[in-house]
Amino acid sequence: MAASPAAQRVFLALWPDDPTRATLARLGQELDGPGRPVPRDHLHLTLAFAGTIPVGQADCLAGRITELACAPIDLTLDHLGHFTGPRITWAGPAEPPAALANLAEQAHALCNDCGIDLGPPRPFRPHVSLRRHAAPPDTERIEPPLRWQADTIALIESGKDGHPGPYRILART
What we know:
Layout: E1 7-14, H1 18-30, E2 36-37, E3 45-54, H2 55-64, E4 73-83, E5 88-92, H3 98-113, E6 128-132, E7 141-150, E8 153-160, E9 163-172
Antiparallel strand pairs: 1-3, 1-8, 2-6, 4-5, 4-7, 5-6, 8-9
């Protein structure tokens, strides 16, 4: 019997429904240029990245995730962007709704309540990663824009004991 991990790599995210996930996956596959599409079951919009934390802190997040439950957020993913360091092409809202920023703040507060140090505050840039090892996209507009009624928040495990691994939903709203 394998020993339980001492630490888990986790994050809180908006988790797309199946139709939205299919559209995002298709968009990632249709982008021109180098890179590889993010796997369909990895598509999400990160609210708070906790990183590698002790299992007990992940259990705290899982036990309290319902505190983040909220009315569905109407997202319009109409913008393509690119992070140059990790070479990631992403989709996001050109004008993020205030409700999304508020939800991210609540996710960060929940992490703090569970004893998780997220480090210094960073600007929130809501996005869904579409391609890795990618070049900047030819256009910044998504036509037609993708509408997403975001209503599921998930705690995702993306590795154990400091090693990346498959995604696994630990809890959801």
